[in-house]
Amino acid sequence: MSEQRGFSIFKKSEEIGTLVLSAWRVFTEGAGLFLETLYWIFIGPFKGKSVDFKALFQQMVFMGYESVKIVFFVTFFTGIVLAMQSAHQLSKMGGTIYVASLVTISLCRELGPVLTALVLAGRIGASITAEIGSMKVNEQIEALDTMGINPVRYLVVPKFLALLFMLPILTVLGDASGMLGGYMIGVYNLKINAGLYVQTAFKFLTIKDIYTGLSKSLVFAIIITMVGVYQGLKTNGGAVGVGRATTISVVVSFIMIILADCVMTGIYFFVKM
Amino acid sequence: MANSSDIILSVRQIEKTYHGRRVLENVSFDVRRGEVFVIMGGSGCGKSTMLRIMAGGVPPTSGKVFFNGQDMSAVKGEAREKIRRRFGMSFQSAALLDYLTVEENVSLPIKEHTRLAANIISIMAQTKLNLVGLQGFAKFLPDELSGGMRKRAGLARAIAMDPEIVFYDEPTAGLDPVVCAVVDQLILDLTKKLQITSIVVTHNMESVFRIADRVAMLYQGRLLQVGTAEEIKNTADPVVQQFIRGNIEGPIQMS
Questions:
Q1: Mutate which: A134, A135, A139, vs B, most B CBs within 10 A
Q2: pTM of the model
Q3: Among the partner residues A140, A148, A149, nearest to B95 by beta-carbon distance
Q4: Which chain A residues are within 8 Å of B87, Cβ to Cβ?
Q5: What is the 3-state secondary structure of B148-210?
Q6: Of all residues in chain A, what percent carry a pLDDT higher than 90?
Q7: Which residues of chain B have pLDDT under 70?
Q8: Please, which residues bridge with residue B36 across strands?
Q9: What is the pLDDT of residue A124?
Q10: ipTM, 2 decimals?
């Protein structure tokens, strides 16, 4: 009996060891990929290999412009829900008017960046993994390599820069459409005077609320592209492999976005800036 | 014995292990300039791995590849990339980028490695497409082409940078016999017209004897025999004979 238990403890520690090792491998490979991307962004232009502007523009249209509708949809209704929920609570304290500032600040600091990033992780992260993953299983990544075209420079850099530009812009749009949702409830349902609503909405909003939100969205953009690309390049096993990699990519992106949000909110909360 | 300057690529004591499984064991041979060199063998004998090691895409576990007498493992970084630009590779699945047209695919390596004007690059790509008989298909996307046409477009891309060696991974796999013959003829024509060396991996026996100057037979990761096509055809080796004839009975056992 005790011998068996000893064996199972040994086995458990072996499992943990393997897990730690593979987590470490993923971390180093991911960091390596990130550094290589930075290398091609900053050193590449000096070697006559700057980013392909046509590809960058195409990616910006696909990631940014084509995501406008879904980002609007999600944040607009979140704004409505947020206003209704907070009105329910605040009316008990006779402070219905503060719905305006509550909606605005929570959108700018938190919900705008996070919701936009989650929507984009589903839409863009999945498509990055599926695209690069199927290129991997169809030998296209290998073909680029044999032609002396670095896949990170050719495929990853335009996507990375495009999302880094577009996610903050979409976040601002998300903040705005969420506020619009809140305004609709505030003015048409709670019967707050329109001018007063707008005034209260921006009364407590500081510039810090805006830039903390936007700095989050930059980090989220890096997470979405790097996770998507990493999973894509690790894909093997044909069509099934592409499906699996895409699922993992979205799940990992979601978790990492929430974790990073928690860490960054913590930093902004405890460190006075 | 061939003069050393006639040898474009030599492979010495190549070993390759994947996840503890040995796929290649002590393989050594030479490829002569301007010949069509065929590596044949059954599925999983390590021939595709051998091709990738020769093309510099996969590092061997041990052993060396010499290109024009230069040890490939000793050159790194940009120097290595420069050497690899003198190689072309045609893939089993053609591996064309599917969001680019045929012409854009063929121009891609030229566009990436030279500073030529767009119209010059377009003319160069057109020339390569003419060579493989795909004039008129420049603006097509890869999935609008048949399998044979895709293979030929991949071939046009492989020769886009005027390489010294072209590596072919199963150039006739999945093609009908007539298209097979067309692709084989194309390999021969390109080798002669452009004075390139062709290294072909295949298990299509008809192809082997149609195109090969010399043949290497790989079996279970080891080099069984190297010789001219004629020598291989008349060999006494029972494994090679069974493979050529496609007999069920013989030393090759299916597991």
A1: A139
A2: 0.86
A3: A140
A4: 146
A5: HHHHHHHHHHHCCCCCCEEEEECCCCCCCHHHHHHHHHHHHHHHHHCCCEEEEEECCHHHHHH
A6: 62
A7: 1-4, 254-255
A8: B198
A9: 95
A10: 0.86
Query: Domain map of chain B by residue range?
Result: 87-162
Q: Which amino acid is at B191?
A: T
pLDDT value for A80: 94
Q: Read off the pLDDT of each residue in A262-272 and give the average, rounded to a whole number.
A: 87
Q: pLDDT-based confidence at A1, cuts 50/70/90?
A: very low
Residue numbers of B between 118 and 157 with CB closer than 8 Å to A = 157
Cβ distance of B57 and A145 shorter than 8 Å? yes
Rounded to a whole number, what is the distance in Å from the CA of A90 to chain B's nearest CA? Answer: 54
The 10 Å CB-count burial string (b at 16+, else e) for B42-79 is beebbbbbbbbbbbbbbebeebebbbeeeebeebeeee
Closest chain B residue to A52, measured at CA: B112
Q: Give the whole-number percent of chain A exceeding pLDDT 70.
A: 97
Q: Is there a contact between B138 and B129 (Cβ–Cβ < 8 Å)?
A: yes
CB contact under 8 A, B89 and A140: no
Residue B81, exposed/middle/buried by CB under 10 A (0-12, 13-18, 19+)?
A: middle
Structure confidence by residue, pLDDT tens digits, B22-70: 888 888 999 999 999 999 888 777 888 899 999 888 889 999 999 988 8
- Chain A residue numbers with beta carbons less than 8 Å from the beta carbon of B115 are 48
